[in-house]
Amino acid sequence: MSDVAVREHDPKVSAASTHGDTGGEVLLAAAGLSKTYRLGRIDVPVLKDASLDVHRGEWIAVVGVSGSGKSTLLHLLGDLDEPDAASGAVLYEGVGVAEMSRSQRNRYRNQTIGFVFQFYHLLPELNIIDNALLPAFVAASGRPRWFRIVSWAVAALGAAVACGGGIAYSLLPLNADQVALSWWRWALAASLILVLGLAGGAVAVGLWMFVYAEIHSLFFRLGRRYQHMHTRAVEILTSFGLGHRLRHRPRELSGGERQRVAIARALMNEPVILLADEPTGNLDESTGEEILDIIAAEHRKGLTVVMVTHDPAIAKRADRIVRLHDGRIE
Fold first, then answer.
1. pLDDT tens profile 90-148
2. Nearest in space to 279 (alpha carbons), one of 306, 302, 300
């Protein structure tokens, strides 16, 4: 894809440059998706030529019995998994996600899409602010182009230094008793040089990446961008009724509070689309309604939502209901 095409199809830039809600504009589309998993010697088809158009600003509920392919469809839409070869495509604003570069796909998952899962997937060692900030950390962790060049140079330097020891060993003077066994010494030296070169390069790159990550993290946390994102995380969590829980860890929260943190994390980078996989599945009815109210409030602000559920009552909250049966959209 050319540089011009890359700029035109940048997921975040493209979404931000669209003027308002066009009503009938197809934002995200699944075109003839099929997905088959292999269990041992058996092929298990989960999705079969499934097609779906998601319009900008729409809230779609995908319903179906367990095993009908709902979660798989959501994973394909979010680029967490790939469809079968030559089976179809996922299109974002008319551009195939599979056609994007690796960095574009990373931005698509990190900034265009927000994910909410049934089981929260919060990191237990982090407090809820840091859990909500994770997408912002990922967005800031991109490495500049020079990083790879420096990494190769560090690897070469580490390998050269390590090889120097093996070469020095091979050049040590031999006495008369060692001459007969000198070929063993040269073979050992050659093996040692190879092993030391590989190990030295690996160790050097590992140390370089560790130092770079620590310095990058320090400067990020001291920068204005981190302060802005931290403020945003606090504002979102407070608006979700978690202002008194900011320094608590997930184990100290109820199920409903954990799901609110998960939604805050999904909204951290201001995504264009929210993909929610059974967001109330582990909650009681009252708490589930509170979570749906939060999603509805974000939808009224213009967020496009695709939600998977098996509960018809929950599905009625959406603008449109799509039924998935035996891997096919009806």
1. 999 999 999 999 889 999 999 999 999 888 899 999 999 999 999 988 877 666 666 56
2. 306
Identify the CA nearest to 80 among candidates 62, 47, 105. Answer: 105
Name the one residue in this structure whose structure tokens are 């202002």: 243
* Tens digits of residue pLDDT in 150-190: 666 766 766 666 666 555 555 555 554 554 445 565 666 66
Domains and CATH numbers, the chain: 3-125+249-329 (3.40.50.300), 128-173+181-248 (no CATH)
pTM comes to: 0.73
Q: Can you tell me the distance from the alpha carbon of 24 to that of 55, in angstroms, rounded to the nearest whole number?
A: 6
Q: Cβ distance 24 to 55 under 8 Å? A: yes
The Cα–Cα gap between 131 and 137 comes to: 10
CA-to-CA distance for 186 and 202, rounded, in angstroms? 24
Burial class from Cβ neighbours inside 10 Å (0-12, 13-18, 19+) for residue 246 reads: middle
Nearest to 93 by CA among 1, 20, 24, 9: 9
